[in-house]
Amino acid sequence: MKSYRMELWFETRQRRELINITARVEDCLRESGIRDGLLLCNAMHITASVFINDDESGLHQDLEVWLEGLAPEKPHSRYRHNGDEDNADAHLKRTIMGREVVMAVTDGKLDLGPWEQMFYGEFDGKRRKRVLIKIIGE
Question: What is the pLDDT of residue 83?
Answer without folding.
Answer: 87
